[in-house]
User: What shape does this take?
Amino acid sequence: MVKQSLQPNKVKAVSLDLNKELISNNALKVLHRLNKSGFQAFLVGGCIRDLLLGIRPKDFDIATNAEPEEIKHLFRNCRLIGRRFRLAHIRFGRELIEVATYRSSAEPDNEKSKRDNKGRILRDNVYGKIEEDVYRRDFKCNALYYDSAKDCVWDFVEGLNDIKKCQLHFIGDANKRIQEDPVRMLRAARFSAKLGFKVDSKLTGQIRRNAGLLNNIPSARIFDEFMKLFQSGYAEKTFQSLLSFDLFKELFPETDAQIKNESNLKYFIEIALKNTDLRVQKSQSTTPMFLLGVLLWGPISNKAHQIKLKSHCSKAQSLLMASYDVIGGHQDKIAIPKRFSGIMREMLVMQAKFEITTDKQAKKMTNSRIFRAAYDFLLLRSMAGDCPKEVIDFWTNVEQQTNHKVNTKYKNNKISRHKR
Ligand code: ATP
Ligand code: MG
Assistant: This one.
């Protein structure tokens, strides 16, 4: 990789509006202990980018010249993980601080670094200096290092300039960086949505042309990335960003083809994702099974319709068969763990069962563990014009009564516990 400047621009944090109040005390403790033991250590990556933008960082990453075994030796609460990249995880209750040893350039001829025939890095555990580590990072805005002892930010690649101008640039040659790790394209879509950073037309073209490389990525890694894309509070914007980079079709090809002709399916996805973002804002739970259900609903309901036309099975049975088929067919794109695909199928099959609006059916359905999620799904469908008014009115009434009963039971329980 072409080396740019080896001398960082060191800028005092006070002049950058870096909000130190938002730095995790545990991360500071780790930095302090590494420094005290004679190692160099910095906060790095997304946390510095976010602190400079006034956003509360999701997590804190540390880069150091200490090697994994040396880190482990210093922290009792440390575990070494990863094969592709060896990392130290230091746990403080629910918080996890990730500490990575500086990496050197993963040149193809190095025996500790391995690539596939398309240039994708499969393994690299070649340790280096900070001047090398910086060029292994993806975007300029993600390559800022914060020295807590001296309270200053080290900038090797004009990352501060990108943050000031709200723009996203790869470090080095974009095509090469994408080929080394095609997941970086998904990261570009995520950051442009989350941060509102501009991606110029040249990079947009490069991403579009390379989008197909995502097929070479193990589907389990795509699932991990899927959760970051859609559960970080910017799902709707990320969806638009994935569409504009032609990346959505690599993740959900059938849905992508369908939304081009069915505007109400696209609208359904948009309102569902906005709803997810609202839940994240309110710190309510979200689950990949609901999101995947939303994103696969188009092809599943289409397929169910075809099955029903050809056979004499019920709507619920045809939805079940279609779910198996479509979810199964997707596993090579996104590996959906069984713990999610099972309840997702149940939720989708319930969409057909909602068409029976009798008291007996209501009693049966409200006993199901998946009723609440399936009702929320139905509500979103009705907002997108995909459910008759009398059906949604009936189930809204049932849902309200169920909620009322649960609340009363909860209140009574509290009162009786109090009395005791
Ligand atoms: P966020 O935590 O908000 O999702 P982030 O930029 O911190 O964003 P992480 O996945 O936590 O993302 O990664 C931490 C840092 O590690 C990044 O900022 C970047 O410098 C580097 N990094 C992560 N993934 C890659 C990658 N695929 N290629 C190159 N560098 C990466
Ligand atoms: Mg991070």
User: Anything to note?
Assistant: The pocket of magnesium ion (ligand 2) is lined by residues 45-47, 58-59, 61 (CB under 6 Å). The mean pLDDT is 92. DSSP finds 19 helices and ten strands in the chain.
